[in-house]
Every structure is written in C-alpha cells, then in structure tokens.
Design brief:
This protein is α/β, with parallel strands linked by helices. It is built from 12 helices and 8 strands. Strands 3-2-1-4-5-6-7-8 form an 8-stranded mixed sheet, sandwiched between helices. β1, α1 and β2 form a beta-alpha-beta unit.
Length: about 270
C-alpha cells in the first residue's frame, strides 16, 4: 500500500473502488483521482481527502493507473496518457471488451497491463471482479490488482480469452437479477399484493437464496429440488418457465452480451 494509485475517470464504479481502498487501509495521500468535470474532482477531494490531478499528471506520478472510463472513451484517454506513461507503470483497465493487447499497442513498449471486469455491487463491497494479465504483467502485478479490487468484493483470475464470457455473466449479471426482481414484483402486484410488500418478499427471498448458494456447497439443481414438492406450487411455476423458454432466453441473452463485448473490442459503437 506504499504505492501511489490513480483512479482515472472516477464515476460510480471508480468512486466505489476508491472508497473501498480507503476502508481497506490505503492512505488518502497515496490516492489520486481524475474526473471530467472540475466540480466532480473537488467533490471527491472533499469527500475522501484524495488529490485530484489531470490525466497527464496521474500518468507521470502514480505507480498504478486504474482506467475506469467507458469503452468508447478509452481511445481518447489512451491518446492523452501515451506520451506520459513510462514502462514501469502498472495500467489496470476496467473497460468492457477492451483487450490488453489493444492498450499495450497504444502505450510505451513493455508497460504491464491488467484487465479487470468488476460489477456494480462494488458499491456495497460485494463485487465480483475477474482479473487477466496482459503480455507484460507478472504475478506481482496480478496480486496488486487483486489487493485493490479485493477491497470491494471477491476476485477471480481468468485467462483473457474468457473475459467476454465473464462480462456477460458477472459484469452485466446484476442487471439480470434486477430485471427478474422487477418482473416478480409486477407479478406480486397482479396477484394482489401491495408493491412494497411484494418487493420486500422478493428481495429477502433473493438474499436468502444467494446465501444458500454461496454457503451450502450444494448444486443449484439440488437446492431447487428441495423446494419443489410433487404436484406442488413450485413445480407448476417451473413448468410455465420451461414452457415459455426462459432457460433458452437466458442463454441467448448472455450470448448477446458476450458478442457485444467482442464488438466493443473491435471498436463498434452502435
């Protein structure tokens, strides 16, 4: 934690990471931030005691640069950083679909790059962050990335060839659960429940089910079967889900997310 870390493009995820690092013991003096707007930078300084700098200043002074901009903004940021990033900097990219090779090609030869895909539960220290090494990144670089992102949740190392699949599963994953809760809440209202009661029932059921999946060690099929009595209410609901192709729709949705991640890597915006 003696190294200086700069979070570039500090939006919601960048701020969640910043606050998690502070809770994890990083001194504010070792943390730099950049933001598109001056008022946003001053807000971060007031809230966390960190130092706002320009992107060029961050590149010149920080030991580790964490790029948290959107994929479509990565090219502009790299153009700005390239003249100022020496080969001994660690660059961590959190942009979906952007490969380490594409970043390495824009920077000084030999710069180590680590690719990380995290998700919005970083806001509540329950993120799932998957980490991959570029061609110049060492085990120490990966460990440093794990230390940083471990401050806001769990980390997992994967080959970069699996990053697009991880983006589809966990990077975008929270949105699927929010979508499901939204649909189930509407169903609860249709069945005669007030919205607030339907919401509370579903959210607590989701928390309980997730905790069982995490802590029991049981396969999800086994846990589902434990709830599914012969000729009961649950199997009737499961039959309707199967009749409507929900499983196939989920598989197709995740394939679409993976494909979009690949398109982003290729520079496709629309």
């Amino acid at each position: 934690m003696s190294q200086t870390v700069a979070v570039l493009g500090t939006g919601k995820i960048g701020e969640a990471l910043l606050s998690g690092m502070l809770r994890g013991g990083w001194p504010p003096a070792d943390l730099l931030v950049t933001a598109r707007r001056a008022d946003r930078a001053e807000e971060l300084r007031a809230r966390y005691g960190v130092t706002p700098v320009t992107n060029a200043e961050a590149a010149k002074t920080a030991d580790t640069l964490i790029l948290t901009v959107k994929p479509q903004d990565m090219g502009t940021l790299l153009d700005e950083l390239a003249p100022h990033v020496p080969a001994d900097r660690l660059v961590i990219s959190g942009a979906a679909g952007i490969t380490t090779t594409s970043i390495e090609e824009r920077l000084t030869a030999g710069v180590p790059v680590v690719r990380v895909m995290t998700n919005t539960p970083a806001l509540v220290d329950e993120a799932m962050s998957v980490i991959s090494a570029g061609s110049h990144a060492t085990a120490d670089h990966l460990a440093h990335a794990e230390e940083i992102f471990g401050s806001v949740g769990k980390t997992l190392r994967v080959p970069e060839s699996q990053q697009d699949a991880c983006t589809a599963l966990s990077g975008s994953g929270p949105a699927y659960f929010f979508y499901l809760v939204e649909a189930m809440t509407d169903a609860g209202i249709l069945l005669g429940l007030p919205r607030d009661k339907a919401h509370d029932l579903i959210v607590q059921s989701a928390i309980g089910a997730a905790t069982m999946l995490r802590d029991s060690g049981e396969h999800p099929v086994k846990l589902r079967e434990n709830v599914t009595s012969p000729a009961g209410t649950t199997i009737s609901a499961i039959r309707e889900l199967e009749n409507h192709g929900v499983r196939a729709a989920l598989i197709a949705a995740l394939e679409a997310a993976r494909d979009r991640s690949r398109e982003l890597a290729a520079g496709t915006k629309d």
